[in-house]
Design brief:
Structural class: alpha/beta
Strand order of the largest sheet: 2-3-4-1-5
Helix content: 40-55%
CATH topology of the largest domain: Arc Repressor Mutant, subunit A
Shape: elongated
Low-confidence stretches: 1-5
Distance between the termini: 20 Å
Strand content: 5-15%
Largest sheet: 5 strands, parallel
CATH architecture of the largest domain: Orthogonal Bundle
Radius of gyration: 25 Å
């Protein structure tokens, strides 16, 4: 059986092993959202080499952080004498140096700081002391210093782009992302869960590729039954996860949650101006910072409309769990297990599933390009939106692939529980989109309509001459 740690983590493993094999000191920063598997990755990859590790305490004062440090230093040094709690982080790192100097460095040692932002609070002096530790001692040793954080924007601003003693000290940077569909399938198989692709994509639309969430899946239950148990039952892991998720990552998380809630109400995404109107948040640098934090942490994505300026960019909620929670769990969590059996039969479900499947296709763009045999062709992805008038309906295309070989793929996504048959109305609607795009942009490039479905397309008089390429679930895996 493959070990979970290396499922979809081949590149990350290679980076970590290179750090261990190099002849220089390494400082490796690992950034990734909560529950994504950062800690597990490090402990499995470096478990034979970890000389010291500590995880910060959430919302704890400096005194408790230092008590926590002293406890782990005493535990890992096997000291039988009680160690005094240092007065500040500088003293703490001096004590750490004293301990590490008693070790044999003929094999590389690893020092691991987890949830760095919880330790490096405002005016704590942690980052300054970490800079002292690295610059005055560690940089000349056979050592790997690993720093992890769930708050991606904080890690980038405060550590990667640090202007003090840590400036340009990061030697390797890893962004740990959720599993792809393919990695999710392999992960489930290592747990002896053998679902077909349709079952897996149903689960993915609700949970995303977060390993900690996927671990809850029961192979003896269907996707619908699993979602019921995990999201709606009294003891389901994800019933109340949303309430903990954002406060654990961001200070003043109310602003982040307001934006997430506003984006969850639309399938089209929102411009920055519309976010301001929907949330009543002031239009200033703090809004930019909040949007940046959500984007870098993987909760939202930014899509640039074809031929438009940056200010017209659309922000979409692309975190699967957050969308699922706000569309279904929050309003139905008191109905208990069995709620999803009912909700999954409603029209609301059909609307959500179409949007959720679109988001999955956007996240698996490299797989889409590979299936279209254009992986080696330079291309730019974008969206297209034309506002409606009194005479014409508005038009939106969620994905365009503008290629350097003088072709634009107009991508239409349809989530369906069987082979799709285009109706006359659907074909006319798609044709109208193509005409509207061609008229508005005046492009001279060849336009190919690409249809991404679940089980493919059954050709008829409405699809012939309209659909150029058809991709199915298999292509996303």
């Amino acid at each position: 059986m493959r070990r979970e740690i290396f499922i979809g983590r081949e590149q990350e493993q290679e980076i970590l092993q290179k750090g261990l094999a190099s002849y220089e000191a390494e400082m490796i920063a690992i950034i990734g959202r909560r529950r994504i598997g950062k800690t597990y990755l490090i402990k499995e990859a470096y478990k034979e080499n970890i000389a010291f590790e500590i995880t910060g305490l959430q919302n704890a004062p400096l005194s408790e952080q230092l008590d926590n440090f002293t406890y782990w230093l005493q535990k890992m040094s096997n000291s039988k004498i009680s160690l005094p709690t240092p007065k500040n982080w500088l003293k703490a790192f001096m004590m750490l140096i004293d301990y590490l100097e008693t070790l044999d460095f003929s094999t590389k040692k690893v020092v691991f700081f987890d949830e760095l932002s919880w330790m490096a609070t405002h005016k704590s002096g942690f980052l300054r002391a970490l800079g002292f530790f690295w610059n005055s001692w560690a940089v000349n040793k056979n050592i790997v210093v690993v720093i992890c954080g769930s708050a991606a924007s904080w890690m980038i601003q405060k550590v990667v782009n640090h202007r003090g003693g840590l400036h340009n000290r990061i030697t390797k940077l890893i962004f740990l992302k959720p599993f792809t569909l393919s990695e999710t399938k392999i992960y489930l198989e290592t747990r002896n869960i053998h679902f077909n692709l349709y079952q897996i994509v149903q689960l993915y639309m609700a949970f995303g590729g977060v390993p900690h969430y996927l671990k809850e899946i029961d192979g003896t239950k269907s996707a619908v039954q699993n979602i019921d148990a995990i999201c709606f039952s009294d003891f389901g892991l994800l019933k109340n996860e949303f309430e903990r998720l954002y406060p654990s990552l961001f200070e003043n998380a109310e602003k982040h949650i307001k934006i997430i809630r506003a984006l969850a109400k639309t399938n089209q995404g929102l411009t920055r101006n519309k976010i301001v109107k929907a949330t009543d948040l002031p239009e200033n640098g703090n809004l930019s910072k909040t949007l940046d934090e959500l984007n870098q942490s993987g909760f939202i994505s930014i899509y640039h409309p074809f031929g438009k300026k940056k200010k017209d960019s659309l922000y979409r909620l692309t975190d699967e769990y957050s969308l699922f929670y706000l569309r279904f769990i929050e309003s139905s969590k008191n109905e208990g297990e069995g709620a999803w059996q009912h909700l999954s039969q409603t029209q609301t479900y059909k609307i959500w599933s179409g949007y959720a499947y679109e988001n999955i296709c956007l996240k698996h763009l490299s797989q889409v390009k590979k299936a279209l045999s254009i992986g080696g062709v330079y291309s730019v992805s974008s969206s297209f939106y034309k506002k409606g008038t009194t005479d014409e309906k508005g038009v939106q295309i969620d994905l365009l692939i503008d290629r350097n070989d003088n072709v634009i793929n107009i991508v239409e996504v349809k989530f369906y529980n069987q082979e799709l048959t285009l109706t006359k109305a659907q074909a006319e609607q798609i044709q109208q989109k193509i005409w509207a795009f061609q008229t508005a942009t005046k492009t001279r490039k060849q336009l190919f309509l690409t249809l991404i479905t679940t089980f493919g397309l059954k050709h008829n008089q409405h699809s012939l001459g309209l659909v150029h390429q058809i991709l199915k679930l298999d292509d996303l895996f």
